[in-house]
C-alpha cells in the first residue's frame, strides 16, 4: 500500500465528509477510495472513521491520525515548494518588520537599491517598536536586537548594535558631568518604559568585562523614541541611546557623551524568520541585502566616522531599539 497516497485519501475523505466527494476530487473510483481506507485501518489496527448511511465521523484515533497526516502533508508540500521557488528569481509580496528608528535612518534611504536588484519583490514594511508574533501576524522576516532564546525562530547575525550615554550641555551645566558610575546617583535620567509592562528599563555599563546594571531616577518617562531624544535635547536628563542615532547630535554639540570609558553592553542584530517555514528566495534576498547594507554603514559598527556615513541623517528616533530588545526578553549577549 502506498502510505503517502493513503494519507492523502484519508484527509480528503475527512475534509469532504464523504467517500463519493473525495473520490470525485481525487479522480478515483469510489470503490478504490473505500479500499484504501479499509487497508489503512488494517495497517494501523485501529478504526479511523465511524460510518453510517447519512454521515461520517472521526474516532478518537482517527482525529489524532488526521492531525498528524495534515502536518506531514504540509511539510512535504512546503519542501517541494521551496525547490520550485529556488528555480525562480525572487518575487512576490514580502512582509518584514523593522524597529522604527533603524528603518527611518538606515533601511528606507537605501531601499531603491533593493528594488533595483529585485524588481519583482513587493515590500510591506512594518515599522514598530513592539514585539511582533511572526507566525500569528504573517510576517516573513523581522530585524531584532539582542540574543534570541526563542527556538521557534531562526536567526542570522547581520550586525552589532552599540549604545552611548549622553546628555544636553544645558543639563550638564546645571548638574555637572559625572566622572564615575557612582556619580549617577546624584543625576536624573529621561526614562524609557515598556509599552507592555510599564516598567522603566534600567541602564547598564561594561565594567572590567562584567555588565553592571544601574537604576536611574527621573522626572519624565516616555515610550516613544522621538520623544525620548527630544527630552534629552531639552535637558530633562541623561539618556542611553543608540550610538548611530546620537552621533549627529554629538557632532553638532547638541549632546555630549558622558562616562565614555564605560560603554553600555553591545548587542547583536539579527534577521529572524520562523523555523517551520522554508527560507524562500525573497526572504533570502532581503536578508543578504540587509546584511550587506549594515556591514557598509560605520554607524552600525560602533565607530565615529560620521562623514563616512553622512547619508544617514540624524532624525530623532531615540531609545527604541533597546526597548525592542528588552520587550522581547532578549539577553544582551552575542551569539
Automatic annotation (TrEMBL):
Q: Where is the HTH lysR-type domain?
A: 1-59
**Gene3D superfamilies (alphabetical):** 3.40.190.290, Winged helix-like DNA-binding domain superfamily/Winged helix DNA-binding domain (1.10.10.10)
Coiled-coil ranges per UniProt = none
InterPro entries assigned to the protein according to its UniProt record, in alphabetical order: LysR-type_TF_proteobact-type, LysR_HTH_N, LysR_subst-bd, WH-like_DNA-bd_sf, WH_DNA-bd_sf
Query: What Pfam families does the annotation carry?
Result: HTH_1, LysR_substrate
Q: Identify the species of origin.
A: Thauera sedimentorum
Q: Which PANTHER family match?
A: HTH-TYPE TRANSCRIPTIONAL REGULATOR (PTHR30537), LYSR FAMILY TRANSCRIPTIONAL REGULATOR (PTHR30537:SF72)
**Taxonomically, which superkingdom?**
Bacteria
> This chain belongs to which protein, by name?
LysR family transcriptional regulator
Amino acid at each position: 500500500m502506498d502510505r503517502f497516497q493513503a494519507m492523502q485519501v484519508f484527509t480528503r475523505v475527512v475534509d469532504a465528509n464523504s467517500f463519493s466527494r473525495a473520490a470525485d476530487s481525487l479522480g478515483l473510483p469510489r470503490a478504490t477510495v473505500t479500499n484504501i481506507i479499509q487497508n489503512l485501518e488494517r495497517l494501523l489496527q485501529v478504526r479511523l472513521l465511524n460510518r453510517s448511511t447519512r454521515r461520517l465521523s472521526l474516532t478518537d484515533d482517527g482525529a489524532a491520525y488526521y492531525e498528524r497526516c495534515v502536518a506531514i502533508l504540509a511539510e512535504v508540500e512546503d519542501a517541494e515548494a521551496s525547490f520550485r521557488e529556488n528555480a525562480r528569481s525572487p518575487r512576490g509580496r514580502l512582509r518584514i518588520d523593522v524597529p522604527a528608528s533603524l528603518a527611518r535612518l538606515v533601511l528606507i534611504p537605501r531601499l531603491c537599491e533593493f528594488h533595483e536588484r529585485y524588481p519583482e519583490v513587493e515590500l510591506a514594511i512594518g515599522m514598530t517598536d513592539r514585539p511582533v508574533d511572526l507566525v500569528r501576524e504573517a510576517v516573513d522576516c523581522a530585524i531584532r536586537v539582542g540574543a534570541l532564546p526563542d527556538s521557534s525562530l531562526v536567526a542570522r547575525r547581520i550586525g552589532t548594535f552599540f549604545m552611548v550615554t549622553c546628555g544636553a550641555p544645558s543639563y550638564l551645566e546645571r548638574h555637572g558631568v559625572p566622572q564615575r558610575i557612582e556619580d549617577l546617583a546624584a543625576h536624573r535620567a529621561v526614562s524609557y518604559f515598556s509599552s507592555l509592562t510599564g516598567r522603566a528599563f534600567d541602564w547598564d555599563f561594561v565594567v572590567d568585562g562584567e555588565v553592571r546594571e544601574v537604576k536611574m531616577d527621573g522626572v519624565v518617562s516616555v515610550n516613544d523614541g522621538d520623544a525620548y531624544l527630544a527630552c534629552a535635547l531639552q535637558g530633562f536628563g541623561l539618556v542611553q541611546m543608540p550610538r548611530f542615532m546620537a552621533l549627529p547630535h554629538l557632532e553638532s554639540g547638541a549632546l555630549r557623551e558622558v562616562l565614555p570609558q564605560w560603554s553600555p553592553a553591545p548587542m547583536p542584530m539579527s534577521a529572524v524568520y520562523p523555523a517551520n517555514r522554508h527560507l524562500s528566495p525573497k526572504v533570502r534576498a532581503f536578508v543578504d541585502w540587509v546584511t550587506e547594507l549594515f556591514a557598509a554603514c560605520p554607524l552600525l559598527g560602533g565607530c565615529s566616522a560620521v562623514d563616512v556615513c553622512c547619508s544617514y541623517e540624524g532624525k530623532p528616533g531615540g531609545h527604541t531599539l533597546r526597548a525592542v530588545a528588552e520587550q522581547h526578553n532578549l539577553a544582551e549577549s552575542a551569539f
